[in-house]
């Protein structure tokens, strides 16, 4: 049986990596993309959506919830100061990050991928951009906040787990 504290710490890495990706999009990439003309914006988002589908993103994105659930299960009888923020972190990541991505952002990405930008009229491109950018960015903000919250709660659980009192109750 692995040391449950190590599993807790291990969960920090992919959760932090994905939080960083989403935060970076929110504070730099999305504002930069907002400055682009409609067709260039849509083409750029199509390219990003293709490129991000790789193991370097997928492994931490899907690994984080697995490690969070494993750490939560291992700490189910731990001190409340460890177990409670860990349960909340797992729930926040599963619903606000994984759930929002798969339920909202991915369908929007698929809709965008199917749109023939090169053959569309300027008005169609402008309409799709307005719809896509507003909706995608709104949902992206939700998952960014959820990721930051999950990572913060996970950090709180790690810090509480490191205290001697929490380890005695476990």
Describe this structure in a few short sentences.
By secondary structure, the chain is mainly α. The protein is built from 6 helices and no strands.
Which terms summarize this structure?
170 residues, mainly alpha, 85% helix
Count of β-strands? 0
Q: Give unreliable regions as ranges.
A: none
Q: What portion of residues is helical?
A: over 70%
The ordered H/E elements are HHHHHH
| Spatial gap, N to C terminus | 15 Å
Beta content comes to under 5%
> What does the overall shape look like?
elongated
Average pLDDT for all residues: 94
Radius of gyration, in angstroms, nearest whole number? 19 Å
Number of structurally distinct domains: 1
The total of helices stands at: 6
Which structural category do the helix and sheet elements fall into?
A: mainly alpha
Largest sheet: none
Report on the architecture of this protein.
- This protein is mainly alpha-helical.
- It has one domain.
- The longest helix has 41 residues.
- The protein is elongated and about 65 Å long.
- The two termini are 15 Å apart.
- The model has no long low-confidence stretch (mean pLDDT 94).
Write the layout of secondary structure elements.
Elements: H1 4-33, H2 38-51, H3 55-74, H4 80-113, H5 122-162, H6 164-169
């Amino acid at each position: 049986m692995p040391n449950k504290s190590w599993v807790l710490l291990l969960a920090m890495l992919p959760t932090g990596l994905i939080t960083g990706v989403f935060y970076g999009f929110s504070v730099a990439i999305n504002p930069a993309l907002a400055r682009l003309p409609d067709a260039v914006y849509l083409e750029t988002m199509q390219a990003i959506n293709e490129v991000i589908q790789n193991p370097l993103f997928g492994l931490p994105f899907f690994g984080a919830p697995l490690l969070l659930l494993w750490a939560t299960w291992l700490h189910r009888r731990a001190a409340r100061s460890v177990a409670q923020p860990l349960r909340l972190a797992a729930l926040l990541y599963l619903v606000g990050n994984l759930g929002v991505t798969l339920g909202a952002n991915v369908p929007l990405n698929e809709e965008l991928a199917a749109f023939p930008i090169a053959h569309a009229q300027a008005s169609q491109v402008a309409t799709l951009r307005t719809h896509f950018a507003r909706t995608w960015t709104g949902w992206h903000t939700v998952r960014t906040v959820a990721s930051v919250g999950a990572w913060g709660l996970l950090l709180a659980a790690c810090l509480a787990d490191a205290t001697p009192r929490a380890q005695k109750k476990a």
